[in-house]
Write a structure and sequence with these properties.
- Helix 6 crosses helix 7.
- Helices cover 30% and strands 19% of the residues.
- The chain has one domain: Aconitase, domain 4 (Alpha-Beta Barrel), CATH 3.20.19.
């Protein structure tokens, strides 16, 4: 999974966990397919029906702010999102994405440079992404973090490392 390629879904600043995974479902929806179906429901009602595996969310500052619910990371993963690129993230949301196995890239460039619907390609190990707006560099992700992504998240990765795979 060192290269991710897909269509850009573009959002603004302060996209909070209540619109990524609507709070009204927190204690009632646990099935991965259903979680994927309601991803971004309150922000972009067309998202879940139109997102394709590998597509990438590009956003402004403070992506994932709000409550700490981990479903907001997992629903995007289950929907097929390949990565989230933002100017900045809520620290807890950033960690929840890593735990879920969903790559997150902090890129200080303005999201205004990116066009919704364009194709984006992200090279995690090499530390760059490219699209019609150009090539943008970010610190390459450590092998340990890429290992978590490749293994499908922190729990499967830990099982693998400890020899506890099922």
């Amino acid at each position: 999974m060192s290269i991710i390629s897909g269509k850009i879904w573009k959002y603004g600043d302060d996209v909070n966990t209540d619109v990524i995974f609507p709070g009204k479902y927190t204690y009632t929806v646990t099935d991965p397919k259903e979680m994927a179906r309601i991803a971004m429901e309150d922000l972009d009602p067309n998202f879940a029906a139109q997102v394709r595996p590998g597509d990438v969310i590009v956003a402004g500052k403070n992506f994932g702010c709000g409550s700490s619910r981990e479903q907001a990371a997992f629903c995007l993963k289950y929907a097929g999102v390949g990565a989230v690129v933002a100017r900045s993230f809520s620290r807890l949301y950033f960690r929840n994405c890593i735990n879920a196995g969903l790559p997150v890239i902090t890129l200080p460039h303005s999201p205004d440079l990116f066009k919704a619907g364009d194709v984006i390609e992200i090279h995690l190990a090499e530390g760059y992404l490219s699209c019609s707006a150009g090539r943008f560099e970010f610190p390459p992700l450590p092998d340990a973090v890429i290992g978590i992504f490749n293994d499908g998240g922190l729990i499967p990765h830990t099982r693998k490392v400890l020899g506890l795979e099922r």
